[in-house]
Amino acid sequence: MDGLGALYQESILDHGKNPRNRGTVENVTAEALGANPNCGDRISVSVSLEGETITDVAFDGQGCAISMASASMMTEVVKGVEAKVAERLFSEFRRLCTEAGDVELSHDGLDGDLVEQLRVMAGVRQFPGRIKCATLSWAALEAALQGRDQASSE
Ligand code: ZN
After folding, report:
1. Which residue, of 35, 54, 98, 109, has the greatest Cβ tally within 10 A?
2. How far is the CA of 128 from the centre of ligand 1 (A)?
3. How far is the CA of 116 from the centre of ligand 1 (A)?
4. How far apart are CA 72 and CA 64, in angstroms?
């Protein structure tokens, strides 16, 4: 199966139709907005942290099926994990979306099944215009977490 159709695999359609963690977390510790003008995606990510642990995370906004499904998968996999583990996973996920060949995704401190589910997004490699759709919510998460670092060091 080649072409853009291959991107719209079952798990993407499922997350697109039934997004997980849509909305805003109750106790917002950090939040950030990501925008992808080329596609029209706008995603806000809110995070609730206890110490270094992401106890709750949610996304809101509008966008294409890829951006919504990726945001939904992102919130599912990083909920309950350490901030630095989420940041490490994003750097691996970004490579998954951009590099050719096998990219190793570490399962350390994460639910392995949810991590492996992210591999469906590797399909965007063939469509450079869609890479940002897949990484937008992750970039917003990273910005939220980094904003929290700055706030706590001030
Ligand atoms: Zn998009």
Report:
1. 54
2. 11
3. 22
4. 12
